[in-house]
Design brief:
Layout: H1 15-30, E1 38-39, E2 45-46, H2 52-61, H3 66-82, H4 85-90, H5 94-100, E3 106-111, E4 117-122, H6 128-140, H7 151-172, E5 187-192, H8 198-218, E6 223-229, H9 235-242, H10 248-251, E7 254-257, H11 262-269, H12 295-303, E8 316-321, E9 324-329, E10 332-333, E11 336-337
Parallel strand pairs: 4-5, 5-6, 6-7
Antiparallel strand pairs: 1-2, 3-4, 8-9, 10-11
Length: 338
């Protein structure tokens, strides 16, 4: 039986799904939202404006319904253009990037057994004092004048763009993984809500809701699974209300782990070497640390000419085309592009 996580992905399409992808391309082309690859000669070509894997994310999100997929794709394209999303990411200050990542899921630098990047989010650590400092910092910090979006939204977007422009494609370039013909497109998240009470959750509700809304609206099919750890007594009543922020497909990927089941469950999906010690593994990494890259990822970066190990901060792009791999450093320092 085929792995359910591969259904609807490149190399694992049914005849109906393949036809839907072809029809989707025609529809987008007719609406001037997509241009196919143009072959110039044997050695030269102009690539398609969007890769098949990216188009399939919208089709899967819409359950291969062309109308639903088109609606979300068109909305996303207009949003990215009108709000200057690329410019926000490429102009973002490096120091502010490091400040921002403290308040959102953080990549550990490791991957699960399928090669999917692992993120950890300690929600309980975000108390009212820290959040007040964050909002004050966002208001007084720099923001892209090319975008109409408020500073806090720009910061949230930078975190999402870092994942899609660097973390996910970097992990996808690792060939020693199951089903390596299928691009990595998602993240696995360990969400730690230890000590999170109702009053703290209520204070964080807009911060958390904004992130979930942005992800579902403009970054479809970016979530592999979520393991929620440390749910306090009575939290399920809060969850009954909060899960309204998510669609059914997303809630089906969220799993609440009891204290005695944290390590056994994580071990099913992640090697012990890649599970933080806090959750029963061997990885000496804690929330707030820089990513601790595994050997395959470290080797990829070094071979691509990036020797800033353990990690280069700020806005980054991972490029992998026809076997040529490189890290493109963007973002700004002291008001100037790097």
């Amino acid at each position: 039986m085929e792995d359910i996580r591969l259904v609807g992905r490149l190399g694992h399409l049914s005849d109906e799904q393949t036809s839907a992808l072809i029809d989707f391309k025609v529809l987008l082309s007719d609406k001037q939202l997509y241009s196919p690859e143009v072959i110039i000669d044997e050695k030269r070509s102009i690539p398609a404006t969007h890769e098949d894997a990216y188009l399939l994310k919208f089709l899967r999100a819409g359950r291969f319904n062309l109308t639903a997929a088109f609606r979300q794709f068109e909305t996303t394209e207009k949003w990215r253009k009108n709000c200057a999303i690329d410019e926000i990411y490429d102009d973002f200050d490096v120091k502010e990037f490091e400040e921002t990542r403290k308040y959102y899921p953080q990549w550990t630098g490791r991957r699960d057994k399928n090669g999917v990047p692992i993120q950890v989010y300690e929600v309980g650590a975000l108390d009212s004092r820290k959040m007040n400092l964050y909002y004050q910092s966002a208001k007084s910090g720099t923001k892209s004048t090319k975008s109409i979006l408020p500073a806090t939204t720009q910061r949230l977007i930078v975190i999402a763009e870092h994942s899609t422009n660097f973390v996910v494609p970097l992990c996808s370039s690792v060939q020693k993984r199951p089903s390596s013909e299928v691009p990595i497109e998602t993240t696995v998240n360990i969400v730690d809500i230890t000590g999170l009470g109702f009053s703290q959750f209520w204070a964080l509700r807009n911060h958390l809701k904004d992130a979930s809304t942005l992800a579902q609206s403009y970054y479809p099919e970016a979530l592999e699974k979520v393991f929620v750890i440390g749910a306090p007594s009575g939290f399920m009543k809060i969850w009954d209300w909060a899960k309204g922020w998510f669609d059914a497909a997303t809630t089906s990927k969220i799993f609440f782990l009891a204290p005695d089941n944290i390590t056994p469950t994580l071990k099913e999906h992640i090697d012990l070497d890649n599970i933080p010690k806090k959750y029963g593994g061997k990885l000496d990494w804690k929330f707030g640390d820089a990513p601790d890259l595994d050997e395959e990822l470290r080797s990829l970066l070094v071979n691509a000419g990036c020797h800033d190990i353990p990690f280069t901060y700020g806005s980054l792009h991972w490029k992998d085309s026809d076997g040529k791999r490189s890290v493109v450093v963007s973002g700004t320092e002291n008001g100037k592009r790097r």
